[in-house]
Amino acid sequence: MLEVLRHPQFRRLFTAQLVALVGTGLATVALALLAYDLAGPSAGAVLGTALAIKMVVYVLLSPLSGAMVPLNLRKPVLVALDLVRAAVALTLPFVTEIWQVYVLIALLQSASACFTPLFQALIPEILKEERDYTRALSLSRLAYDLESLLSPALAAALLTLVSFHGLFAGTSIGFVLSAVLVVTTAFPVAQAASRTGSPYHRALRGMRIYLHTPRLRGLLALNLCAAAGGAMVFVNTVVIVRSELGGGEREVAWLLAAFGIGSMLMALSLPWVLDRRSDRQVMLVGGAAMAALLLAAASYWFVSGGHVRWSLVVPTWTALGLAYAALVTPGGRLLRRSASEEDLPFLFAAQFSLSHACWLIAYPLAGWIGARFGLAVALLGLASMAVLGTLFASITWRRGDERVSSA
């Protein structure tokens, strides 16, 4: 897998992604602790709202990012967006009201909604061979896992020295370092043909390609399944640890790390697995596993009355991480296979928007329903989402579907 780092352009971009995500992971832990500090046991509802705002911004802005930014301006735009994110992160320690959290999250995620699709679309332009790109996707998945593994572990260590407010400074440093690395990367030569038509029509083209391609409709359904499991972890970990298990700030970080361990183990094994099994097989197994885990957790919660133990929560979170990585990691291969090179930025933007629409459903369900009716009801709702997503994907994404859409 690591041989793909011999490509100097990819190596710099991957390192930029790595340091930015370390910072983002610190912010994830700090934001959960900030929500609990402001709202106590209702922190799940606050986090659910904040993350729903994030998803609304992603759904609305990300389709336009690839369509509106000229190819020759991608580098300065990416650098500017990193610096905006760094500046917003520095203001979060001074928040004293819940509404301020919502405003700053909207600003921070507006920049991320524009940054991420542009960044993701660069990788297949740099790595032309599918074998290299597959390994790049797995490495990218490992980088994302730092947000839920190494970053929480680092956060747990830092929390012995500083309050959680200090973690936001680490977030800002990560974004600044990312900007420096983007500046030093040579971008692919812009192709004029990829900018034909108005930004509006280019954005719609990405959506049309996506929704007219059966395997991508299956991918969207599996994104719903991934969002169901991920929302439970990211929204309710702090509530379970602080209110149900009696843990502290560091225990929140370590339980998030358990989810990351599972995801990282799966990402490490996927290049070998995908050489032997189809994307469809791997992702449908991941969807079935996610649905089964959530159903089992909901059943246990109802039967036990919410009396959870560390010995059950930790392996469950790890297994959820395994299923999550199996669902999301191969997605880039499907996108690359479904459009010509000039349409890839629009297709990645469409995937970013539509996948986060799934999270827009899952986050409020995990947060608001969990806070109002209990985590057992939230788990049952999320399990239903995962079951429906997996079933729809198995129906709409037929075996042997290798056609490229020409929408």
UniProtKB/TrEMBL annotation:
Lineage, top-rank taxon, reads Bacteria
Where does it localize? Cell membrane
Give TM segment ranges: 12-36, 42-64, 218-240, 252-270, 282-302, 314-335, 347-369, 375-397
Primary site of residence: membrane
Which one Pfam family would you cite for this protein? Answer: MFS_1
InterPro entries with a match to the protein in the record? MFS, MFS_trans_sf
The protein's matches in SUPFAM superfamilies, at most eight in alphabetical order, are given as: MFS general substrate transporter (SSF103473)
Q: How does it sit in the membrane?
A: Multi-pass membrane protein
Kindly state which keywords UniProt assigns to this record, in alphabetical order. Cell membrane, Membrane, Transmembrane, Transmembrane helix, Transport
- Could you say which residues form the signal peptide? none
Which protein is depicted? MFS transporter
Species source reads Pseudoxanthomonas kaohsiungensis
